[in-house]
């Protein structure tokens, strides 16, 4: 949140579109065998041979999906890639390429785009995806990022949302709710800062939550972890909008109901402390807070022994018949109908 | 430009993101053999078997790339698809799938998005591409459309910008400059309309130009036409930013120069008339006006006899050694250095 006011600023207009694209893309390297031709022509050329191609796309808008007053541009670039890579991982596929399109208003200097690109480049390198194309143009207001991710998998590996069956166990990777509470902490500090700009935020008690918000990771490791456990997931989705919302997607598309156990939902101790501080129920946050990018999936009941002690995963419920409905079983053993209260970009 | 003020308006917020996506995508059908799974999961799944995959992406921003005061939404949706399909055609590949992401401000009612989707659906159906995914979210200002197109081709069919050789002939499909002058006509009529809203525009003399601006077509037919002529292009690009700009891309990437003959540049008679009316040089428009979505390509000199009388194509120049430079040979037989003066989204 500290800014050097004497940074060099280069206007985008002085460069022009082609030079800007050249400048911003010169550090992208090709590492995937399936990338035949990356940036620099009308289109990229890819070779997936006998593998199937998996494609997902996301559009991120300043003021809707992110706030640059506490989201550093490098983190934003990183997170934008993660969100798309996560969708590919949620198909139980291997992410391989991305395209990145940007629209920026003239208030952004070149150096800001370089920061953004540094985050994109870092994420691309960590996740081993090639940046193979994109578009750079101006916007009337703010920053807009559109990323399309491609991945590969064999047909029997690919896991849809619609494969869950009655009796399957519901499993989640990692822990939930931290990214959302990280955002609440950052928004509170922003307000404090606006009242008194000399107040430097003390964020030591919130590091995990803030990291989950500013630098989330996609669970690219889950595919390999499950392969080693010899578990084939029956349905899978990533948690971008919140556990409730994603679970209801699986139930709807698989034509099943579910029982989700409140006491089983994995929550980090830091989240519990901060929820107490904010006087918010941590289960509500874990159910409805988005942007965790963990994977939610179902497995056959028979696979329970293979996964039960694995530190990467938590069994949080099971699937029931569709007419039994979708429920949360609380710690007090009462049954509450699950509702999707996840993020809705279109609400006013 | 006439608007029925009594149209039914449904607010996007009243629907919510998931219902909106369901509503807008329900008419998309799958026609490509390579589409295994379209909309409805974390990602789409495609099967290109032994073919290579070609990927291109575009970001269109209201107020930068289009003006809704004279661009009807249905035409806009159509044109957005065409611009992307055109990039795939420019690789000498077959367009097969697109993803469509939209960000809209709350001022857009559902019915406006339906119009936009009707144009997208029409273009997808005409070009035989499947809509396999996307994202729908809100914007702070205006409408933003991001489209990623995929296509397929065998490796020996794919034509890059960098394959032109000294002695190759330079060929263009269709005619040039009309889309740009169509835009000039529409902008003039908009100004007239702003002065006196009762003035109904008389556009009979401009129908071809306006159609080229509002409903351009991608030259998907060129690949097949060239196959029938038994011509394999050596380099290819689509004309979105203007002939000069695109030709310079081919020259730069192929490390060659060029001689482009002014008298050979194909121009529609309506363009000549309107250029006279506007007191603009038609060659300048043909060189620098964008959005024609014709294909510019090079072929071996030996193929000249196969193409010379074909009504779809015009030979407009030839490639020379890189150190001879890039020139326009005027009707007066003077040699002028070619400059890219195409559209630059980032200029203020």
Please tell me what the overall shape of chain A is: globular
Our Rg estimate of chain A from Cα atoms comes to: 21 Å
Named at the architecture level, the CATH assignment of the largest domain in chain A is Alpha-Beta Complex
Biggest chain pair contact, residues each?
A-B, 75 and 75 residues
Structural class of chain A: alpha+beta
What is the CATH T-level topology of the largest domain in chain A? Phosphoribosyl-aminoimidazole Synthetase, Chain A, domain 2
**How helical, in percent, are the residues of chain A?**
25-40%
Number of strands of chain A: 13
CATH superfamily of the largest domain in chain A: PurM-like C-terminal domain
Tell me the fraction of residues in β-strands of chain A, as a range. Answer: 15-25%
Average pLDDT of chain A, to the nearest integer? 90
Number of domains of chain A: 2
What's the CATH first level of the largest domain in chain A?
A: Alpha Beta
How would a textbook summarize the main sheet of chain A?
A: 7 strands, mixed
Question: Taking strands numbered 1, 2, ... along the chain, how are they ordered across the largest sheet of chain A?
Answer: 8-10-7-11-9-12-13
Distance between the termini of chain A: 28 Å
The tally of helices of chain A reads 11
Low-confidence stretches of chain A: none
* Oligomeric organization of the protein chains: homodimer
- N-to-C SSE string of chain A, H for helix and E for strand: HHEEEHEHEEEHHHEHEHHEHEEE
